[in-house]
Design a protein that fits this description.
single chain, mainly alpha, rod-shaped
C-alpha cells in the first residue's frame, strides 16, 4: 500500500520523506559545525599555544555534539498525509 501511495505522488524507491522541522534542525546544526570548522582552521592557522588548541577543540566539540545527537528517521505512511 505504501509503495502505491508513494508512486501516486511521484516518489521513487530512493526518495525519503522527513519532517521539515527535523530537516531544518539538522541543517542548522550542520551549519554551526561548518562555521566552527572554519573558525578553528582560522584560529590555528597562525602561531598558537596549548591554550589556543584546547579552546579550539572545546569550540569544535561544542558545535559538533548537537549534530552528533541528531537522528532523523523517514516518516511512515501513517505519519504522512498522502490522501
Amino acid at each position: 500500500m505504501a509503495r502505491k501511495v508513494a508512486a501516486a505522488h511521484g516518489l521513487h524507491d530512493d526518495d525519503v520523506i522527513v519532517d521539515r522541522l527535523r530537516l531544518e534542525e539538522l541543517q542548522g546544526a550542520l551549519y554551526c559545525l561548518q562555521a566552527a570548522l572554519e573558525d578553528v582552521d582560522r584560529d590555528l592557522a597562525g602561531e598558537h599555544n596549548q591554550t589556543d588548541v584546547a579552546d579550539a577543540l572545546r569550540w569544535l566539540l561544542d558545535n559538533a555534539r548537537p549534530l552528533a545527537d541528531l537522528w532523523i528517521e523517514p516518516r511512515t505512511t501513517s505519519d504522512n498525509h498522502f490522501t
